[in-house]
Structures are given as C-alpha cells and as structure tokens.
C-alpha cells in the first residue's frame, strides 16, 4: 500500500447526544468510501457497534476506530481515521480518549430535537482538545426538522458558527458526500515528524482470544514497525511488536505506521491491566524524555455488591469479572462477604447505566444469576481521632461516636428540558436536596444547572427525570466536590435480625420516608411463616418504621365440640406459646425477589 503524505491524513471523531445518529453516519461514511461492500453492510445497522448489548439498546458503549480511503474532488487520495464515540454520560471517559487522538470533530445534532445536554458536554470536551468542529445537522428529512432554528441554537448555546453546517440524513445517505468533502477542506491534517524518535499515545486496549491484548495507538512522531522493541513509559515494561495494522472495520496488517496515523499493535501482552490507557509508547533503545499529557483515569462513582444467587457460582463469577475487567479498565471489584447473601464482590462503576450493562453482560455472556445490593457512593468520614477514611459500603461504617463529620460527593448537573416540564423538573431537583445555580433559555427550552448530592442521583434520578418530562429532558453531570452532610445509617431488621444487604446511608430528613417505604415493600414480599415476623427500619437503636407479617395459623379449636370455654382457651394459649418459641428459633427465608424489589423502592 502506498504511503499517503501526512498532509492528506484526517483524524476525526463524531460527537453527539444519545440517538442523534453518530453510528448511522459512521455506517454511511464507511459505505461511501468502500470500507465495506454493500453486501457486507446488508442487514446490519451500526457496523461499529460490535457488542450484542450495543445493538439491542441502540447505544454505543466502546469507542470504535476505522480507517477509510477517500478520493476527493481535487483528485488527491486521503486517509480518514474515524472514531465513533458513545453519547451517554456514563461513558464520557471513552469520548475523552477518542478526542485526544484526533484533530477535529463532526458535531452531529438532530435537526428535529436540537442541542441536548450531552451535545454540550461532548463539544466542550472537543474544544478543550483544540478541535476544529464541523457542525452536521442530521435527520433533515424528518417532517419535524427545523434546521434554521437548530443552527441558531448551536450558535447561541455552544457559540460556534453554524451558518455552513452540513445538512444530511444519515439514514438515507442524503448529503453525506458533502460531509466527506467538509472533512477534507475544513479539518486540519495532523502534525508530526517522521524522523523523530517514536512517540505514540495509547488510546485503548482490549483482549482478543487469539492475539492477546490488542492496543490501539495514535502515532505522534516517528514510525512504529513490526519487530521493533517498544516501551510503555507509564509502566516501564518493554515488548516486541508482533503485528502492526489498522481497521477498515476488518483487521489489516501493514509493515509500519507513520506519524498522524491511528492503528493497532499486538506484542504478546498478557493482561490489559499492563496497558494503561493514555500511556506514552516509545522506542526502547532511545526513549523520548517527555510523556504525552494522557488522560485522567476513569474514577468509579457508584458502588454496589454483586452476589451469585447460587453460592456454587462464586468461582465462575470471579472468572467472569476478571474477563470483563480485561476489556473495561473502568470497572473495578474486590471480594466481600455478607451474612444474608454469602460471598460476592463489591464493584465500582462509572454510573448506573454502566452498572446495568455490566450486570447484563455477566448474566448473558457467562450465564450467571446475580443479586445486586443498593447502589451507594463513596463517603468520606473524618473520625474524632483526626484520621480520614473512605466508605464504599454502608456496612463498614464505624461507630457513630467515633465520627466527627461525614462528607458526601456533590455533582453539578446540567438539565435541558422543554418549557412545559420545567416545573416538575425543578420540583424533582428540589426534592433531591438540590440547589439551583442558574436557569437560562434557549428558544423554548430551558437549561438548568443544579448542585445535587450524588447519593440522590444514583438511585433512580434519571428514570424519574425521564418520566416527569415524558422523556424530553436530557441530563449530564460531573463531580464537583465533597460537602459535609447530616447522614445516618438506616438498617432493616427482619425478626430482630439486621439484613446487611439492605442497610444504606440516607439523609436524616429523608430517613423516615425511605424507611417506611422499605418496610412496606418488604411486608408484601416476605411470605407468611408459621410465626409473626416484625419488619423494622432502625437508625442506631431507634426504630423509625415497622410492619408485621401475620403468622399462618392452624385452627387448633376445630376438634372442640361444646364444653367449657376454658378448654378452647387452653388450646389457644398452648398454640401461642408454641408460636413464641418458634419465633425465637425460627429462621426467616427472604426470597431473592424481595431483595431485588426492595432495592428498587421508589421514594
């Protein structure tokens, strides 16, 4: 294959809000540049979404890269490296990695829906990476499309010139050739020196059963060749490069990758953990002195326990998590035990969608049946002896006497909503202990910024927001800092025994409501036993809510005909004594569904 001069390379990513058509546009670009034949595309939408879950849910989870060759109108041959990125807030770190490897972005905005919260978040990330941005209005063929209004919106909200935005319909292919020309004429080529020492950015890595770890790299300076010995500067490990190549979605091997190019290498690396995303790869013999800036590591914000329903599956679960960890460095786990649920793992996630995806992949790819405990966030505790600790799990909370102060994480949320739902959105944020920072209007849509405690958001905030706004509100957030809070540990006692899987940290003002909701739910879910079962919600030694599951009773007086009332009473007293004794020694079986349903309780 002939090498293309660096001035004819274009590296770009596609950024947009969820469902504005990133992956569909990527499909059309691949098709029009001949990356895949029509036959290979047939019957397959979103070629780059390779996981089953991505297909079913219609979302992109992993950023994917493709190299396309294009002959422009000026008769020159160009190479495009395209990165399709996720739009969902939980996968924002995937977006930041892709952006660091590119010089420009196509900003896709749905012409019928306009600018949404994530559109903003992703564009600001692109601007932080000094990207040249080409606005693309998608779905202009829909009857509800208002391209002129949306152009104005892009200028008002984001502040970039949208007068020459490209109008397309990614589904039908209308206007897509103009996008290809815009990439050539409006996006800058990469810079890089072919004769300098090798310097490459590690963009992503994943595990392949046949090849070991596959590493996605962006060459900044120098050349990456087959057989070369390279060093990862972050970990200090050195490897011999076995394969060098790129994706046209299909893997293609080449002899070398030059500056400005994006491709993959394999080098007998055993663990994905050895390849830190954002690391700098250089020549082992004459390494460069300075590392590339890299990215901030992905920090888990939501924690929950995952336990196998069948205790025999524990080892399978451990192996399955190890495998998922191979392809998803942002997912972390450690072992924990619970009196109610046995052995399991405490896992960290980037958000609730991430949690859901991991759970679904565990049950689907590894055929595991799991219970998840209530999601919680990281709390910081200052103790009376001056030390500070972090708590991931409410069960580990030290004695109240020893705690001087509890701090919880806060986020800044940006919510965009049509005007008519603004009232209910504000009420929802207010109920979740939020404080409003600003409220602005973009046409008929309101944009609200709120400070909210993360604790209130991880539970079911997103679902509630979608239901109060009939699905029209969009939401984006980032962590700001930790603030002191009046939090208490609430325990659920069943038959006077605490159930550790259901204990949670709640704000004192919300404890009673949450506790009452939990015990009422548990009352419906625990089947009646031979004895009475009290279900209580307690803070420390104080019970704040109680329900009782009535006992199953046998009619012991059935065989009494006539006679004195004392005979009946004697039999009933005897039964009562027996029930009391049973309650002392009886064990309450809480069915699995009860845990799952109780954790979904909606305040």
Features:
Alpha-Beta Plaits, eight-stranded antiparallel β-sheet, 603 residues, elongated, six-stranded mixed β-sheet, Rossmann fold, Elongation Factor Tu (Ef-tu), domain 3, alpha+beta, single chain
| CATH A-level architecture of the largest domain | 3-Layer(aba) Sandwich
Rg for CA atoms:
29 Å
> What's the CATH topology label of the largest domain?
Rossmann fold
Shape: elongated
- Return the structural class: alpha+beta
Protein described:
The chain is α+β, with helices and mostly antiparallel strands. It folds into 5 domains: 6-186, P-loop containing nucleotide triphosphate hydrolases (Rossmann fold, 3-Layer(aba) Sandwich); 199-283, Beta Barrel (Elongation Factor Tu (Ef-tu), domain 3); 302-372, Elongation Factor G (Translational Gtpase), domain 3 (Alpha-Beta Plaits), CATH 3.30.70.870; 379-485, Alpha-Beta Plaits; 488-599, Alpha-Beta Plaits, CATH 3.30.70.2570. The protein contains 14 helices and 31 strands. The strands form 6 sheets. The protein has an 8-stranded antiparallel beta sheet. Strand 12 and strand 13 (251-253) form a beta hairpin. The radius of gyration is 29 Å and the shape is elongated.
